Amino acid sequence: MKRICLMLLLCCYFIGTFAQIQAEDTLAIDLGAAPDKLDVRPYIYSLEDNGKQLTVAQLSQLAFTKNSQLFHQQKKSNSSTHNCWLKLHVKNTGNKDTSLIFFTGWHDYLYWYVQSGKDWQLLTQTGLILDNGGVERWERFGLPLTVPAGQTRTFLLHIINKSYNENALMPVLLNTPEYIKFRNEQLNHYRKEAIVIFVLLGMLLVFMSISIINYIQLPDRSYLYFAAYILGLIIFFALRLENKPYQISFFYRWPLFKYYWDIPALLFCFYLTYLLFGNAFLNLKERYPFMERAFTWVAITVAGLIAVCIFSIHQGQYQIPVIIYSYVYFGTLLPLLAVFVALARRSRHHPLVRFFLFGSLCLYLACFGSFLLHLGPLGLESALGELASPTMLLILGVLLQAMFFLAGLSYRNKLVHHERTRTQELLIKQLNKNKELQHKLNEQLEELVKEQTTEILRKKQELEEQRKIQLEIEYDKKLTEIELKAIRAQINPHFIFNCLNSIQLFVMQRDYEYAQKYLSDFSYLIRKTLDFSRRNFISLADEIMYLNTYLGLEKMRFENKMEYEIIVDPAIATAELEIPAMLLQPYVENAVKHGMTNPSQPIGQLHIKFNQVASDMLECIIEDNGIGIAQSKALRTLPKHHQSSGMEISFNRAELLNKMYNTGIHIEIIDKSGHNFTESGTIVKILIPQL
């Protein structure tokens, strides 16, 4: 009898316990008279899906448990994908079939099921990533909960959060008026932030337009990098609207886009384009070469990390970009501070450094302040990732940095404009001086010709009074010398004319740097030409230096489309050996003229060789790869018998020198195309005997 009583007591205990469990497990409520808002956490049972990819059919074999740590009112850092199931039993104790709204927060994936017999029916699915609907997508996060009067239904909610920070998870039941009130509160809360973002986007668009206009007017890479930086910020902040409930986003049809341009945007804007802009804006390559190399390598590394982040997001590994950004952020703190200190010490000598430093410090302090605001609730790594949801402090820092950078670009544009104006004024002054010099030289040459003509007439009259033999000898000698000087006087204006044409070309092309160098070398040639015009013979060393300067000018005029080489026999004493002044220059000039116009040769080649063929004989060879004599005559519009005035003058000079000094200067011109050479061109051989 005692045993029977004990068994009855145990049965009553288990029945009561089971009834208590069922009572706690099921939410019994009159849905028709339900409160406005009901916290259902005590009635929620959960199951963690740790990478098992469970299906609804498999859940019947697994046990759900209560886990109060699953719920949180603030954002929570996830070390990996958070995949969980929530189960809720609801009994409608009223006599009306009424619906409530079950709300748990804004999550990446939400699947809402109701049990129908032994099967589960999917009522709705939504999520920040899954949903690809229209502008009403945010309305679907309120999940409908309908229970007929007097019946009990079981609901399942599958929540998947792949992003690094999980939004608040607080399950509540709301009636329709309360949900509308909640929606309006959310709308009013985020509307202010949306207005700030729209204003910021408008200002950034203005900044980008200004930089593009300035780049068109003054092609400078710093404007291009600044425009890329602003464009990255525009897309970044435009995508922030996608995270604001009930706002109209520009990219609502592509919900994954905001994740692809989340952490990669921070790396692109705050590191990649920032380093490229600083490199070009401060002209680090010329001023600070070591810092320029460091900026370049860090920028290349960041570009690779951006590609890794995008690939990781594509694979669903949303935590990897946050980890990468954390290492980049902390790894660059001290180097950036060192760079700021180094630049601050040299800001007096480089005024643009101040704009760069002030803009960088504004963003640096804003990022650090935003990081400290998120550090407490989210932890170290997730606080950095939360910079993708910028605070007002970060927005202010970005705006100040953009304004400082744009002001620096305007100031830099002003400096460049002043420098160009000053350079143009100097070039104009120098050009006017050269014109005056040309005018004076022409006057001197005219006077020289008149004086020499008068001298010829006077000498003729004197020679007529002398004996016939002596008169002939003196007449021939003086006449030859005077003609030689007259020929040299003709060479000078011919050469000056060609050089001034080249200078005019550079000035018209606004290539002021080459124009200045050309003017300097041209001044040297003018002095040497005047000096050589007073002498019949000069040293071979002076002639080589003269030709080097002349060919350097011609190489600049042809924009490095010609190459030349002067080879001297080591046995020749160039400082002691003398040759007639201005004898070789016309042939070199002619080789440059026809050697650089060969369409089959992209680069004109000119070789000048000096060989000691005998103890008293110097050989000079001038060889080019031009079109040759025959083709030059075929293309020439002048009469076929016409010859270059410079070459004709030099040929006449050689005859006069032979007659006056009894020398045997011999000149031979060879067309390569007529002598079975493998390439076209001209060879000029000049034999100069030593007196």
Task: Describe the structure in your own words.
The protein is α+β, with helices and mostly antiparallel strands and 691 residues long. The protein has helices at 2-25, 176-217, 221-240, 257-260, 263-281, 284-287, 289-314, 319-331, 333-345, 352-378, 380-385, 392-465, 468-508, 512-533, 540-557, 585-595, 628-635, 645-661; strands at residues 26-29, 37-39, 45-48, 76-77, 82-92, 98-103, 109-116, 119-126, 143-147, 152-161, 165-166, 172-174, 537-539, 562-568, 578-580, 604-614, 617-624, 666-671, 682-689. It is 56% helix and 16% strand. The strands form five sheets. Strands 1, 3, 5, 7, 8 and 10 form a six-stranded mixed β-sheet that branches. The longest helix has 74 residues, at 392-465. The N and C termini lie far apart (155 Å). Residues 427-469 form a coiled coil. Keywords: Coiled coil, Kinase, Membrane, Signal, Transferase, Transmembrane, Transmembrane helix. Residues 483-561 form the Signal transduction histidine kinase internal region domain. The chain crosses the membrane at residues 194-216, 223-239, 259-282, 294-314, 320-343, 355-375, 387-411.
